[in-house]
């Protein structure tokens, strides 16, 4: 059984010139150690919900597994905070992926990755998906509407994956990477193709988040916050449409605007715009 990701506890609040006894919600922080083929692989600090999805997504984004069938067994000991995973590979041959640093060019261009598994696993998007401005605004509104725990605690990252229409799955975690891994794990568990999907994210689009999106394989990422300069350059190189500052009735497109089609306007954008 999954643990509660938030607790209501007594606090002292200073407000209106007074110290007041009251209760408040805050989030659970849970260390999860992942053992793969009897070798300790990583410890993830996470929110203790959708843990199997998190493990699948994390292992896939690290290149330990490539598909659901690579996973032979997964056992959880939530009391001790351990996950025991068996895969159909020799984990000792994969250990370098988490530790060895390499500066390698991205897609033959000038951008740089900092870890070898990023360079090996991040995918240039081949998506054919197109979205309208109205779909972008609606998806962000959905994310905001599903963020009840964040509203209560202020301590979580929220993320969702969607096709812009009927398919929409929301996850949250204290770790921004974890929230995305849970979505990836959800799709891996159910053999759902991510190629023509969209990531919706509550936080800043950093280079790490952009690389995570590329590892998942989506072609569009939208956020209510800003991107960084390196994230935008990576998005251009990896053929990912990055959309930021999605708020109320506006947003900014930073890369590959050709995927955003405005049916209310005759103006078109080619793939050189915002390059």
Automatic annotation (TrEMBL):
Cell location: Cytoplasm
Location (main, coarse): cytoplasm
Residues the record marks as active site: 107 (cysteine persulfide intermediate)
Keyword Acyltransferase: no
Binding-site positions, Mo-bis(molybdopterin guanine dinucleotide): 245-250
Keywords, alphabetical: Cytoplasm, Molybdenum cofactor biosynthesis
Pfam families documented for this protein: FdhD-NarQ (PF02634)
Family: Belongs to the FdhD family.
Function: Required for formate dehydrogenase (FDH) activity. Acts as a sulfur carrier protein that transfers sulfur from IscS to the molybdenum cofactor prior to its insertion into FDH.
Protein name per its UniProtKB record: Sulfur carrier protein FdhD
Organism taxonomic ancestry: Bacteria, Bacillati, Bacillota, Bacilli, Bacillales
